[in-house]
């Protein structure tokens, strides 16, 4: 029977755990000096070694042949724990056992002394999945910990765990594993297995795994099975989906170099890779945004986003005019809108390709070569335009007959005549916050902001680097973003929005609603609000009659953190 690499090569000693030296050294010291805690919280992204560390800990604390804090892995106790056969080491997956009953069961059974080993160890994985009732039951146990019982709680989402629980544990934050560490571990394993490999292939895999060792080994498994016991670059690119990434880069270069025919061929190749038309457009939008982002702040685009060829991405970003990128996003959004109703997306993608290849930087005296190359194949364009007209006529017919399309994600898109396409700010969400905003609320949010940023992943934090809270009430926070396209990237990122909401909940004890705005629109939004929401009995206005009431009210609402410019 074939066993997955990550199972076979599951670390059995603290020193085998990749990239977590600080944590493993601390745990070894605690075991050697008999200063272990009753409860531990292991947090960190998936595949970073949390449950492996928990099992090694369970062995080390129960092993009678300890060497420098490491379990011997030879004695009966060690072997039984490795095989999951020791009754005193209990692994619980909270994702499947989230009921109060199970935890009550723990409470009852935890009272009894270990039967086979020195310590009874409960390892509760994905502990954030427990229900409130189960958390309360667990808290009772942690408040009066039975002797010789240790709880190890593991989670990818510590912000979902009640502070009352966290405060009773010793917390260890497992880091994402660096591409280098993950690369070294793969080299080690492949050498032990005597499997040949291309170093470049391992780099591609390490990058694709995004800091999870288990993911890296799972991908490596697939690549090995493809390559008949060798690891080739081609297979690694294919398995990680990097082929598509490369093709997207090809396509972007081709359309910006105005070579329509190769671009059309690349597009067909991408569709053959199994990508659907909508996904293709989403990928192009996201690639274009990354290029824009890289132009503004190169350090904010992580190398994972850039794919297997960082230099190529960087060169492309330097060569292309930002205005062209903005036009591309607009064109992509337009086509995405039109495609909502069609059953022939391929035609739209052809039109898209021709349109993109025609975009030019708005420079007077454009290079003559580029202009020549930009002349489209008019016959082909004409043909496509006719096809699209036909499809749109069909569509009008369908709509007239009452066929409704599902509301598309892009329905809220506002198209500016020039510049980037920005989703319109929903003032109906902003105004209630402004209506109840106080300086104190804003100060409170600002006080926890740094901690909130620390909860986020590195990529999320980089994105939020350009954002600040600008107004707050008890119920909501307005967050302004420096660049409009980053604002849009943020609001499209549900995981980020969830993390921010959960983080605020944890840090402030309640979860104010987060509403994002592009910073360039913020002064106007504020002015519009103040102009339309004059309070009848504004105390600020009566106290300081010398100043215009609007300015006064702005100061009262937003403190000295904003300047009110005269119109
Ligand atoms: Zn042992």
TrEMBL record:
Under the heading InterPro entries, the entry gives: AAA+_ATPase, ClpA/B, DNA_pol3_clamp-load_cplx_C, DNA_pol_III_gamma-3, DNA_pol_III_sug/sutau_N, DNA_Rep/Repair_Clamp_Loader, HLD_clamp_pol_III_gamma_tau, P-loop_NTPase
User: Could you cite one Gene Ontology molecular function of this protein?
Assistant: DNA-directed DNA polymerase activity
Domain AAA+ ATPase: from-to ranges: 36-178
EC number, as in UniProt: 2.7.7.7
Its top-level enzyme class, in one word, is transferase
The alphabetical list of record keywords is:
ATP-binding, DNA replication, DNA-directed DNA polymerase, Metal-binding, Nucleotide-binding, Nucleotidyltransferase, Transferase, Zinc
Which reaction(s) does the protein catalyse, per the Swiss-Prot or TrEMBL entry? DNA(n) + a 2'-deoxyribonucleoside 5'-triphosphate = DNA(n+1) + diphosphate
Concerning its family, UniProt says: Belongs to the DnaX/STICHEL family.
PANTHER family under this entry?
Answer: PROTEIN STICHEL-LIKE 2, REPLICATION FACTOR C / DNA POLYMERASE III GAMMA-TAU SUBUNIT
What is this protein's name?
A: DNA-directed DNA polymerase
The protein's organism comes out as Lactiplantibacillus daowaiensis
Gene for this chain: dnaX
């Amino acid at each position: 029977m074939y066993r997955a690499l990550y199972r076979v090569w599951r670390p059995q000693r603290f020193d085998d755990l990749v990239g977590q030296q600080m944590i493993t050294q601390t745990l070894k010291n605690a075991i050697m000096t008999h200063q272990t805690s009753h409860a531990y919280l292991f947090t960190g992204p998936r595949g970073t070694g949390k449950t492996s560390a928990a099992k090694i800990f369970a062995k080390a604390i129960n092993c009678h042949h300890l060497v420098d804090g490491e379990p011997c892995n030879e004695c009966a106790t060690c072997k039984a724990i490795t095989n999951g056969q020791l009754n005193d080491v209990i692994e619980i997956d909270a994702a499947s056992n989230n009921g109060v009953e199970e935890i009550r069961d723990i409470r009852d059974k935890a009272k009894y002394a270990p039967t086979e080993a020195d310590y009874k160890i409960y390892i509760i994985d994905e502990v954030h999945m427990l229900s409130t009732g189960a958390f309360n039951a667990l808290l009772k146990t942690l408040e009066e910990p039975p002797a010789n019982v240790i709880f190890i709680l593991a989670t990818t989402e510590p912000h979902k765990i009640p502070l009352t629980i966290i405060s009773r544990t010793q917390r260890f934050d497992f880091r994402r594993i660096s591409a280098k560490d993950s690369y070294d571990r793969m080299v080690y394993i492949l050498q032990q297995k005597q499997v040949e490999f291309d170093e470049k292939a391992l780099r591609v895999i390490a990058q694709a795994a995004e800091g999870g060792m288990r993911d890296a080994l799972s991908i490596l498994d697939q690549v090995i099975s493809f390559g008949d016991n060798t690891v080739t670059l081609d297979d690694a690119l294919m398995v990680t989906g990097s082929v598509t990434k490369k093709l997207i880069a090809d396509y972007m270069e081709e359309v910006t170099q105005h070579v329509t025919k190769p671009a059309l061929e690349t597009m067909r190749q991408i569709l053959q890779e199994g990508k659907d038309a909508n996904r293709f457009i989403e990928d192009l939008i996201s690639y274009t945004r990354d290029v824009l982002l890289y132009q503004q702040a190169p350090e904010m685009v992580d190398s994972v986003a850039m794919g297997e060829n960082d230099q190529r991405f960087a060169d492309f970003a330097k060569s292309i005019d930002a205005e062209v990128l903005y036009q591309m996003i607009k064109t992509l959004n337009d086509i995405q809108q039109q495609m909502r109703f069609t059953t022939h997306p391929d035609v739209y993608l052809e039109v898209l390709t021709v349109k993109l290849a025609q975009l030019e930087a708005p420079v007077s005296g454009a290079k003559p070569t580029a202009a020549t190359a930009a002349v489209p194949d008019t016959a082909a364009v004409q043909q496509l335009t006719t096809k699209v007209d036909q499809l749109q006529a069909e569509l009008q017919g369908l709509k007239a007959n009452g066929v409704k399309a599902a509301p598309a994600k892009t329905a809220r898109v506002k198209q500016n005549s020039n510049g980037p396409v920005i989703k319109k700010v929903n003032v109906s969400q902003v105004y209630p916050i402004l209506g109840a905003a106080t300086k104190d609320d804003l100060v409170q949010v600002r006080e926890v902001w740094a901690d909130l940023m620390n909860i986020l992943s590195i990529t999320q934090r980089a994105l939020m680097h350009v954002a600040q809270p600008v107004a707050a009430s008890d119920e909501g926070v307005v967050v302004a973003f420096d660049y409009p396209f980053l604002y849009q990237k943020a609001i499209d990122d549900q995981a980020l929005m969830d993390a921010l909401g959960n983080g605020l909940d944890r840090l402030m004890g309640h979860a104010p609603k987060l509403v994002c705005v592009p910073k360039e629109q913020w002064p106007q939004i504020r002015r519009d609000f103040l102009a339309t929401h004059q309070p009848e009995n504004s105390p600020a206005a009566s106290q300081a009659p010398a100043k215009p009431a609007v300015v006064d009210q702005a100061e009262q609402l937003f403190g000295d953190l904003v300047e009110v410019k005269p119109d």
